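Notebook entry, cofactor series.
This is the third protein in the set we're modelling with a bound small molecule. For this one the ligand is flavin-adenine dinucleotide. I'm keeping the input format identical across the series so the outputs can be compared line by line later. Sequence and SMILES below, as received.
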Amino acid sequence: MAQITILGAGVSGLTTGILLREAGYQVRILARELPAQTVSAVAAAIWFPYEAEPVEMANRWSAASYLVFQELAGLPGTGVSMVDFLVLSAEGQDDSWKEGLPKGAVRQASAEELPPGFNLGYLARVPLAETPVYLPYLQARFLRSGGELAIREVLEVDSLLQQGHTVVNCTGLGARQLFSDDSLYPIRGQVLRAAKKEGVRSMVFSGVKGQLAYIIVRSTDIVLGGTDYSHDYRLEHSEEDTRLILQRCRALDAAIDTPTVLGAAVGLRPKRPAIRCEREAGRNVIHNYGHGGAGYTVSWGCAQEVLHLMQARR
Ligand SMILES: Cc1cc2nc3c(=O)[nH]c(=O)nc-3n(C[C@H](O)[C@H](O)[C@H](O)COP(=O)(O)OP(=O)(O)OC[C@H]3O[C@@H](n4cnc5c(N)ncnc54)[C@H](O)[C@@H]3O)c2cc1C
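Returned structure with ligand:
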């Protein structure tokens, strides 16, 4: 059975590692950072294909992931649950994400369900992965299945290939340097964690660049977002962004009012014109990166694609 080295221990690397290992491959993950230090740990991690292209493929991978998350939501200790999510829409916005949902999981919201200023929205039942539980769950499942995980920054892949390993690249934004991918760039996202409040609903508006706003109610807190600054590498959170996030979230749901902010975090979404989930021509490398703002949403679908690519090689 082939020896596989996965690079990266974010949601992409861990999910891919689980599927490959559970299919019987020998798998180890090498990662510069452990899951808790990755972009994946910053995400709100709700099912929604945001900033993921091409749209048709992203919807397909999202649909496949939905089914897996739905199963995980029924299991204790995964951190996954099914939640109501109001997706607000703007004139001309692509709403084809709905095609990734099973029948009956989404309907048009009534006028009374919409915040002031919005004419169109959809109420969807979607998976939410609470990252402080879900990432450790993924890591534990991978290790339990016999996978190995080591902290190591990889500076070139040829030596791994010379040892006969298949390399699976799940390095997110790291692929820009490691695989000289100039088409990959960050979309900087800031989020706030706030204390729970009664009556607050989970919702998103992503229809206008520069006005991204979302509220995600989790079991012990609320995640408020966001920002969508392309090509911005700054990792520090800013007071100005905190102010803008609170302002935009208040406009979505007045119940937010003046929340108790517990913390702020920044993550760089790995965006590319098209998610790269393919075998590299001429080298024994399979890529799985560039998932933008939808790394969780497409995670199981993309991992299944990697598994198919491995099996097609046998
Ligand atoms: C604010 C914010 C909110 C988000 N909300 C959502 C959401 O609600 N739903 C959703 O689906 N997605 C969301 N996302 C997007 C999602 O977080 C990303 O798409 C996803 O985390 C990408 O995962 P990844 O595993 O590919 O990359 P990362 O999580 O960045 O992991 C990359 C891994 O590769 C390793 N690595 C990099 N370079 C090297 C190297 N040279 N050698 C070894 N290891 C290396 C890193 O150390 C890390 O372990 C959000 C993102 C942000 C920032």
